[in-house]
Design goal:
About 15% of the residues lie in helices and about 20% in strands. It contains two helices and eight strands. Strand 4 and strand 5 form a beta hairpin. The longest helix is centred in the C-terminal third of the chain and has 11 residues. It binds zinc ion (3 copies). The site of one zinc ion has 8 residues, from loops. The site of one zinc ion (ZN) has 8 residues, from loops.
Length: about 140
């Protein structure tokens, strides 16, 4: 037996349950590990995955509305998802954001994230009721 020490596999199992993540190919650089836009240099490492070509994201997750799952807004990493192209799946019931109609974009400045849903394209069902009056008219 070579497995010794105070780290039984049971403890790891609990930690994994609380914060489940999956490794996916980096959407921003498409797994190349290089900055896709060469902002600093064509050889600089991808800012999202730090050159690893893979990113660790929460599971389950949903596609980021603001960047359409690409991880990029124009030449910059999406501020909503951090460039991973996906977001942790909401735990509570959600509605399509009435402010951006689910696009996650600010109406007047599409490169900016919608302030009402923080770029997610959806809001919590409870919040929708609370904010209904604010956005009517
Ligand atoms: Zn990358
Ligand atoms: Zn995004
Ligand atoms: Zn919105």
């Amino acid at each position: 037996m070579y497995r010794r020490g105070p780290a039984p596999s049971g403890a790891e199992g609990i930690a994994a349950k609380q914060r489940a993540t999956v490794k996916v190919p980096c959407t921003f650089c498409r797994g190349s590990g290089k900055d896709p836009f060469g902002v600093m240099s064509a050889l600089s490492a991808c800012p999202v995955c730090a050159g690893r070509g893979v990113t660790e994201v929460r599971a389950p997750n949903v596609r980021c509305a603001h960047c359409r799952g690409t991880g990029a807004i124009k030449r910059f990493r999406c501020t909503v998802c951090g460039g991973t192209g996906c977001l942790p799946a909401p735990e509570n019931p959600t509605l399509v954001c009435p402010h951006c109609w689910g696009s996650g974009d600010d109406r007047s400045e599409p490169a900016m994230a919608c302030l009402a849903c923080h770029g997610r394209g959806h809001i919590q069902a409870q919040a929708a009721n609370a904010e209904k009056e604010e956005y009517s008219g």
